[in-house]
Amino acid sequence: MEHMTPKARRLIETADAVVGYRTYIELVRGIVKPTAEVVSGTMGREVDRAKTAIEKAVEGKAVAVVSSGDPGVYGMAGVVLEAAAIKNAGVPIEIVPGVTAATAAASKLGAPLVTDFAVISLSDLLTPWELIERRLHAAGNADFVIVLYNPQSLGRKKPLAKAHKILLKYRKPETPVGIVRQAGRDKEGAVISTLKDLLCEEIDMVSTVIVGNSTTRIVNGRMVTPRGYHLDK
Q1: At the fourth CATH level, which superfamily is domain 6-86?
Q2: Rounded CA gap, 166 and 122, in Å?
Q3: Same CATH topology for 6-86 and 101-224?
Q4: How many Å is the maximal CA-CA distance in the chain?
Q5: What is the pLDDT of residues 145-193, one digit of tens each?
Q6: Strand pairing report for 176-181 and 189-194
Q7: How many CA atoms does the CB half-sphere of 152 hold within 13 Å?
Q8: How far is CA 85 from CA 17, 79, 81, 177, 188, in A?
Q9: Cα angle vertex 108, ends 107, 109, to 5°?
Q10: Residue 184: predicted pLDDT
Q11: Helix (H, G, I), strand (E, B), or coil: what is residue 224?
């Protein structure tokens, strides 16, 4: 809750209806007003929730659609805008920015993202794996620091293993890698490892993985990617 912007909190607190994935609704339920209608559901029903949110807005209700992190980064912002366009709904839609997992995780590891970086989701539910693979090669070849979202689950181990193999073509095995689980939540944990040992670490769908570039190093136990400043001793 402390990482939520005051504006986001105010809009949730005053909403007539709050719509979102069940887990995210539970995280904010404490600030939802008692009279508000709450619509929650399972993963994979994002389109249905977007349509429901638009319908309630057309009814004249102030609706808050809840995403984790930033709603415009692998969040609900896009599908809500598309749903509104399809329905020709003339309701105002405001996208309130938040703290995305990339920056939340980076803050727990040190300063790995102070230069150019790429963010890639390893979930192939909505994006073909062939395209994800091309992006991994491109980011690896360009020496970006790489943030991996949705790295793996109990039933989906192959994407991370394939990504690991690809990135080893462009990075040394000792390249620093950070893994943060539950960034910004009560059970948060962070580990700094190496690319060589990446697959030995505990990684799941609530993990964010940050793979350093050729200049990333460990400074007093923290990941740092130098910006290029010249520091005098």
Answers
A1: Tetrapyrrole methylase, N-terminal domain (3.40.1010.10)
A2: 13
A3: no
A4: 64
A5: 999 999 998 888 899 999 999 999 999 999 999 999 989 888 889 999 9
A6: antiparallel
A7: 19
A8: 20, 10, 6, 41, 38
A9: 95
A10: 84
A11: strand
Q: What is the CATH number of domain 101-224?
A: 3.30.950.10
For residue 182, give both structure tokens. 């539950």
Cβ count near 94 (within 10 Å): 7
Average pLDDT over every residue of 25-49: 93
CA distance 150 to 156: 10
Is pLDDT at 55 greater than 80 in this prediction? Answer: yes
Residues near 7 by Cβ (< 8 Å), separated by ≥ 6?
A: 96
AA letter at 138: A
Q: Which amino acid is residue 43, in one-letter code?
A: M
* Per-domain boundaries in the chain: 6-86, 101-224
pLDDT classification of 34: cutoffs 50, 70, 90 = very high
pTM above 0.85, yes or no: yes
Looking at the chain, the number of H-run helices and the number of E-run strands are 7, 11
Catalogue the long-range contacts made by 196-204 (C-beta closer than 8 Å, 24 or more residues apart): 198/160, 198/164, 199/160, 199/161, 199/164, 203/151, 203/152, 203/160, 203/179, 204/151, 204/152, 204/153, 204/154
The proportion of the chain whose per-residue pLDDT surpasses 90, expressed as a percent, equals 87
Q: Is 172 helix (H, G, I), strand (E, B) or coil?
A: coil
77-86 vs 46-58: helix crossing angle, rounded to 10: 60
* Residue range 95-147, pLDDT digits in tens: 999 999 999 999 999 999 999 999 999 999 889 999 999 999 999 999 999 99
